[in-house]
Every structure is written in structure tokens, then in C-alpha cells.
Amino acid sequence: MIAFCITCRGRAQHIKKTLPQNLADNKKAKFILIDYGSPDDLLEYVTSAHADELATGRLVIYSYQADRFRMAHAKNFAHRCAILEGADILCNLDADNMTGKDFDLYIADLFRQAEYDHAMFGLPYIFLWARMI
Q1: Who contacts 1 (Cβ-Cβ below 8 Å, separation ≥6)?
Q2: Any idea what the Cα angle at residue 111 is, between residues 110 and 113, rounded to 5°?
Q3: pLDDT string in tens for the chain (133-residue length)
Q4: What pLDDT is stored for residue 123 in this prediction?
Q5: Fewer CB within 10 A of the terminal residue: the chain, N end or C end?
Q6: Domain count, the chain
Q7: If you ran DSSP here, which 8-state letter would residue 123 be given?
Q8: Are 95 and 7 contacting, i.e. CB atoms less than 8 angstroms apart?
Q9: CB burial class (10 A; 0-12, 13-18, 19+) of residue 26?
Q10: Is 91 contained in some domain?
Q11: Which residues have C-beta within 8 Å of that of residue 7, sequence separation ≥ 6?
Q12: pLDDT value of position 21
């Protein structure tokens, strides 16, 4: 299962724009949202606007009370939570990231091909990253 791991502290305004679209665009993925001591209305927004996704487990939110944002800790926390939720493919998303339609299917296809290549030819495991220009 693919999990999109999102950390958030003080960026509810971004989550309000990206999360609904990302959920709509990626029907096969699970979303793990870390409320990393967010001082805004993040929890209120997510629990009211995304109650259905929370009820089905397609969206899971964990809260951690932090005095400041520590990116490495927040992302590691998100990854561990995603693994606890059953994910075997983890994808980081920042609060302001849009995935695009069917990005989850694209990732799944790449990993299926990499798995086949690894079995057939002994090629290394796959690692994806954004190409920043």
C-alpha cells in the first residue's frame, strides 16, 4: 500500500487547498497527516471537512505536541506512523504539494516494474525524488 506522508505545523491554509484535491486524485493511496503542534485550525478543519476519509481510514491524523518544527523528526514520525498503518511504499508530501491525478497509480506501476526488473535482472531497488529546476 502507498502512503502519502504529510507533516504540518502552522500550514493549515495549504492543507485546505491541497488535501481535498490530493485525496480526489489518488483513490488507491492512504494519507498520513502529522499535526506537529500546529497552532492553527488544522485539527478542526480535518475532522470536520474530511470526516468520511477519517472514518474509512483512508486519511489518518496523528498529533505530536512540539515546541518547534524539526523537519527530520516530523518526517521520520510520519514514516513510522505510515508503516504502522500498513504502508510498504512511502511518499513524502509537503503541505503545499499537489500530486496530480493518479500519482498513486504511477508510483505503483514504477514499483511493480522495479520489482520485476529486480527479480529478472538483479537491478537495485527504486527511489524516486522530485527533479528541482
Answers
A1: 29, 30, 86, 87, 88, 89
A2: 65
A3: 999 999 999 999 999 999 999 999 999 999 999 999 999 999 999 999 999 999 999 999 999 998 999 999 999 999 999 999 999 999 999 999 999 999 999 999 988 887 766 666 666 667 777 776 5
A4: 61
A5: C
A6: 1
A7: P
A8: yes
A9: buried
A10: yes
A11: 33, 34, 36, 71, 74, 75, 77, 78, 94, 95
A12: 98
| CA–centroid distance for 57 within its chain | 13
Q: Is residue 74 part of a domain?
A: yes
Q: Which residues pair with 34 in a beta bridge?
A: 7, 62
**Grid coordinates in use for 100?**
496530480
Range of the domain at 81: 2-121
**Is 128 within the bounds of a domain?**
no
Measured CA to CA, the distance from residue 81 to residue 45 in angstroms comes to 21
Does the global pTM surpass 0.70? Answer: yes
pLDDT of residue 129: 78
